[in-house]
Amino acid sequence: PPTSISEVSHVKTMDQYKEMYKQSVEEPGKFWGKIAETFYFKKQHEGEFFDYNLDIRKGEVYIRCLSDATTNICYNCLDRNVKSGHGDTIAFYWEGNDPMDSTSITYKKLLDEVCKFSNVLKSLGVKKGDRVAIYMPMILELVVAMLACARIGAVHSIVFGGFSAEALSSRILDAKCDVLVTADGVYRGTKLIDLKSIADEALELCTKDGHSVSACVVVKHITANSYCDDKTERPAMRPYSGFKMSWNKAVDRSWEDLMQSASNECEPEWMNSEDPLFILYTSGSTGIPKGVLHHVSGYMLYAATTHKYTFDYHCGEVYFCTADIGWITGHTYITYGPLLNCATSVMFEGTPLFPDASRYWAIVDKYKVSKFYTAPTAIRSLMKYGEEPIRKYSRSSLKVLGTVGEPINPEAWLFYHKVIGNESCSIVDTFWQTETGGHVLTPFPGCTPTKPGSATFPFFGIVPAILSDEGVEIEGPGEGYLVFKQPWPGMMRTVFGDHKRFERTYFTKFPGYYVPGDGCKRDEDGYIWITGRIDDMINVSGHLLSTAEVESSLIEHPQVAEAAVVSKPHSVKGECLYCFVTVLQGSEFNKELVKELKEKVRHHIGAFSTPDYIQNAPGLPKTRSGKIMRRVLRNVAKGNRDLGDVSTMADASVVEVLFQNRDYTV
Ligand code: ATP
Ligand code: MG
């Protein structure tokens, strides 16, 4: 399908991309140094841009950039934009769970709030280098809290608001956080989530483990109702008055009380480029989450540059990323990247299905959103409702549609392009990880000709390679392990408190390379296609298969909503395919369907890939960020009830259903 070629894109042609790319990898110091000039550094850097060792055989792995400079990322997000005349520009339109709730905040007002909360944190004894845990809904105070940490040099560790008390406490303990910032509660659709009592339980668990936070700051979000510009009477769905919050005088502090007396002036802490900025735990699709540590300057340059080019962002446009700030996508592409580019963003508290499946498009029309960023899981869940909820809204402001989180199957890609984008938007399938800080493989809107399901080419500064099992680089078309050969500014620096784990996880399998853990293939035109995680590769009778490929063929069947494929040990083939299939509402899972699905996979990939098992899966186990947990499914396939760490699973009850359904496997 064509990309919309825009005359005003930052990068207009593939030749221009290639030229910029060449400089970015051959003279990274020059390329990034020029970008760094557009930001404020208290002390300019003088030495080499990069200093690094990625080769474990030569000693400790480390990555540093601009390491003799000092700056502050919060200053660059806020003060810099206010000083250049953007004080009255809207930083965020906030859209509540309830469609009647909304407000907005300018750059100037955001700066005031951040300075106030910076002073609050200081008054609670928080100093540079201390860790602050943040467990909040998608409200503006969350952005204020994280930027305040960055301003005073404290390291924020944001824990997604959908996590349990146990998951929260293990993250507070791992990072030894001194303060927790939370809120009373939040509505997700019609469901009330009592965040404060989950936070209380988490803090109790921490105390049992010998670590107590000194303060827990609580925002009154649903109990105060001070948040919305529209003061009309609300539906019974929000019984604010009936909500009772426990209060522990020893540690609990009211956000509102503390803010009232705080000054709105706060000199930023001038940080060394390589001082830590934040810890973020990975989503736990493959195992126990890792506390990924990002540092100030490199992350700042990379967040800003990827946001600008990948979305082709121009000042004045309205940008909407549907992620939660509790994930890396929210860190880089709701808070830091957009603010560094002086963007106007929509921050959305709710879910795509409330009050109905049109919600995203209602928001797009309301704010005239032109750049939209979501996940394949959201697109697939909306596909189930057909085209009508989408066609109800014009979406005519949309120009770029982004996706991230999992491989996007061509079926969903085409739906995104044809139905949601009216065939007139560029689709950007962005491949990256918590560890990479920002996009590493992505098309450029109005520039890169796309192919459905391919993340296309590397971003500036990224040098990918494909390795065989033996660690040999595959030139030209081929399939193998995706690796990166050079550092880039936004690359993680270590696993918090465990540098050995950092080296072991990413640098030992193929010494000399960064190994993200994903497989990929390169086609005849040089396009890169992510084939899924290395752990999810399946070897059937000596043929290496990617789960993404099999899943894509299953999903193409008109009755299939979602599919996940794992391996099961097989006495003859070594491994065989075990498929979990969710059928569309109103469709029936039966022998006929199973036959058709087997035929489909056979036809698409080859006879050797014919699935041995196809099981009905009314629901699939997913992480709280919406990714399929194939390691759990592998255990279901084997009938092994010892599931390992499932603290990151969104809804554990689906697994029980799957164990029961095993009997009906065809
Ligand atoms: P954990 O590392 O704890 O198992 P996780 O890998 O799910 O969790 P994230 O850092 O949130 O944690 O996700 C990054 C991973 O998501 C990538 O390594 C890749 O497997 C997948 N991914 C992200 N974007 C894409 C994409 N556009 N195409 C294919 N896969 C993607
Ligand atoms: Mg990962």
Automatic annotation (TrEMBL):
EC number(s) for this protein?
6.2.1.1
Q: Where is the Acetyl-coenzyme A synthetase N-terminal domain?
A: 17-77
Which top-rank group of organisms is this from?
Eukaryota
The entry's family comment says: Belongs to the ATP-dependent AMP-binding enzyme family.
Keywords of the record: ATP-binding, Ligase, Lipid metabolism, Nucleotide-binding
Q: Which GO terms describe its biological process?
A: acetyl-CoA biosynthetic process; acetyl-CoA biosynthetic process from acetate; lipid metabolic process
Keyword Transcription regulation attached: no
Lineage of the organism: Eukaryota, Metazoa, Chordata, Tunicata, Ascidiacea
Which catalysed reactions does the entry list for this protein?
propanoate + ATP + CoA = propanoyl-CoA + AMP + diphosphate; acetate + ATP + CoA = acetyl-CoA + AMP + diphosphate
Domain (AMP-binding enzyme C-terminal): residue spans on this chain: 549-627
According to the record's subunit comment, the protein's assembly and interactions are: Monomer. Interacts with TFEB. Interacts with the 'Thr-172' phosphorylated form of PRKAA2. Interacts with CREBBP.
Q: Per the database record, which ranges form the AMP-dependent synthetase/ligase domain?
A: 84-493
A GO molecular function assigned to this protein is: propionate-CoA ligase activity
Q: What is this protein called?
A: Acetyl-coenzyme A synthetase
